[in-house]
Amino acid sequence: MERRTRSGRAGFTIIELMVVMAIVLVILSVAVPLYNKSVIRARETVLHQNLTTMRAVIDEYTYDKQKAPQNLEDIVREGYLRQVPMDPMVGNNTSWKIIMEEAAASVSQAEPGIFDVRSSSEKISLEGTKYSEW
């Protein structure tokens, strides 16, 4: 619908434009938080998958070689992984928090290695726990 102004030109009134802008702002105020939460949830899913994969590979390496890997590059060098997965919460693949096994409980007591891997991020997940505790 076109409206004619006093000067004869077609256009919208300021009130109509303000109503449209208010509607757009309400929609955005609902959509942006939902989008941000979905991005965080996707990163959490990737973190879960990467941790599960690395833990399985560490166990396979330990079983096959009869000793735990000394660092994550050992797993890549031996062909268990193509590359060390990225920690999506930190944004790189070099800052993983490595937990070494105790010498008394290790497979090769002379050379204890990696027991577990965790994220180095201290941020809180949507579940309410720290990523570094997963």
- Given helix and strand content, the structural type is mainly alpha
User: Within the largest sheet, what's the order of strands?
Assistant: 1-2
Please provide the count of β strands. Answer: 4
Hey, roughly how much beta strand do the residues contain? 5-15%
Summarize it.
With 134 residues, this protein is mainly alpha-helical. It is built from two helices and four strands, in the order ββααββ.
Q: How would you explain this protein's 3D organization?
A:
With 134 residues, the protein is mainly alpha-helical. The protein has helices at 14-65, 72-77, and strands at 3-4, 10-11, 97-100, 114-118. It is built from 2 helices and 4 strands. The longest helix has 52 residues, at 14-65.
List keywords for this structure.
single chain, 134 residues, mainly alpha, two-stranded antiparallel sheet, two-stranded antiparallel ribbon, 2 helices, 10% strand
Strand and helix map with partners:
Blueprint: E1 3-4, E2 10-11, H1 14-65, H2 72-77, E3 97-100, E4 114-118
Antiparallel strand pairs: 1-2, 3-4
